Amino acid sequence: MPIDQRKSRRHFVANGARIVWNGSSSPQGCRMLDVSAHGARLELEAAAKLPDKFMLLLSHDGGFRRQCSVIWRSKTAVGVEFSSAFPTRLKQRRQAN
């Protein structure tokens, strides 16, 4: 049996999210299948075309987001590592509150 090398426990979810990266004209939809404090597994149609680094928008308004690096990919899914262990809010939203 393979040894699980994750840094933290994952939680199974089925949440919608959006992906943006430099050069993308609009966010690409995806589904987050599982998530932990350090990463997630995302399902999307064109996983092979996704860049190695991108921003994952976790809230409707994009206020909660995580910078991601692709760790593995298949035809329809990617495993990503978050650059920080906690979601960050947009500076504009922090200043408005």
Outline the structure in words.
- The protein is mainly beta and 97 residues long.
- The protein has one domain: Thrombin, subunit H (Beta Barrel), CATH 2.40.10.220.
- The chain has one helix and seven strands, in the order E-E-E-E-E-E-E-H.
- The protein has one helix spanning 91-96; strands at residues 11-20, 28-35, 39-43, 53-57, 64-73, 77-82, 88-89.
- A six-stranded antiparallel β-barrel has the order 1-2-3-6-5-4.
- It is globular.
- The model is unreliable at 87-95 (pLDDT under 50).
Features:
single chain, 97 residues, Thrombin, subunit H, 1 helix, globular
Radius of gyration, whole Å: 14 Å
Q: Roughly how many Å apart are the termini?
A: 49 Å
Give the DSSP E fraction (strand runs of 2 or more residues): over 45%
Record field, number of beta strands: 7
**What structural category arises from helix and sheet content?**
mainly beta
Largest sheet: 6 strands, antiparallel, barrel
Major sheet: order of its strands? 1-2-3-6-5-4
* CATH domain class name: Mainly Beta
Tally the helices: what do you get? 1
Quick overview:
By secondary structure, this protein is mainly beta. The chain is built from 1 helix and 7 strands.
Strand and helix layout:
Elements: E1 11-20, E2 28-35, E3 39-43, E4 53-57, E5 64-73, E6 77-82, E7 88-89, H1 91-96
Antiparallel strand pairs: 1-2, 1-4, 2-3, 3-6, 4-5, 5-6, 5-7
